[in-house]
């Protein structure tokens, strides 16, 4: 599985953009980058995913570098409810099915 | 559409007992995966079921088992409980379980082993 590296924690001011980096230097050509977040003791919530191109949805934007070795999740206007652990995951699909391999994630604290 | 549901939400057992947890996927989803989350090990993949067949398994002892029914509902069982099995058990469902499918998680079952 391609490994991901994220900073363990970061703070963000309410109303400002939060930029969450992720390194995945060993990613292979057919592996997707997924982002989930987990608010305390709840199930992880899907945010966004992408393969090569930048993606945007109602929650966030995902910027993937051209060499695909890193990506950035952007929360455009962080709110207090965005305080959570954010996981960057490289999705492995094999002939035997697929699984999500979670790393340690980034603990994001949005401050008023 | 209703999300993934898991029952029970909380469970307390003692060492040596066994436990069965249930997961109902989103309607139409055929793939169900199970994960264990502990403070020490984080989120770890247990197994995945698709069309009533286990097609992927994580690195857990044989005490952890599961099954999937024809309506895609899934159960996981842990026998001979140990203190270290105390964890949040999460179930996730996806349409077909391939790399373009998004997995949606349920709220989890919090298991405490005394």
Structure description:
The complex is a heterodimer of chains A (112) and B (114). By secondary structure, chain A is mainly beta. Chain A is built from no helices and ten strands. Helices cover 0% and strands 50% of the residues of chain A. In chain A, the strands form two sheets. In chain A, strands 1, 3, 4, 8, 9 and 10 form a six-stranded mixed beta sheet that branches. Chain A is globular and about 40 Å long. The model of chain A has no long low-confidence stretch (mean pLDDT 90). By secondary structure, chain B is mostly beta strands. In chain B, the strands form two sheets. In chain B, strands 2, 4, 5, 6, 9, 10 and 11 form a seven-stranded mixed beta sheet that branches. In chain B, β4 (31-38) and β5 (42-50) form a beta hairpin. The A-B interface holds A 30-32, 34, 36, 41-46, 49, 87, 91-94, 96-105 and B 4, 31, 33, 35, 42-45, 48, 50, 55-56, 58, 88, 90, 92, 97-100, 102-108, 110.
